[in-house]
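Researcher: Structure for this, please.
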Amino acid sequence: MLRITPEKDLGVDNYSHYMKRDKRPPARLAMGTTVVTIEDVQALEVKEEREESILAMLGIVGTFLNLFVIVFVYIYTIL
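Model: Predicted structure, token format:
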């Protein structure tokens, strides 16, 4: 098994092992720019609005189910 340990104190390049194996470094190590368009932002906002409305609906349904269970248990304990 190949084990690679970073050698920071010796001044060795920590990323040289990627080049030895002909692999690219992970994306988090790569430097670059990102372009975000208005369309991307609008699509993300629409998606978030839909998620929020679904979560709100689930909250309302959960509240009614909880009230139903409370009433059912109350009636069951009285009888």
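Researcher: Any notable elements?
Model: The first helix runs from residue 16 to 20. The chain has a mean pLDDT of 78.
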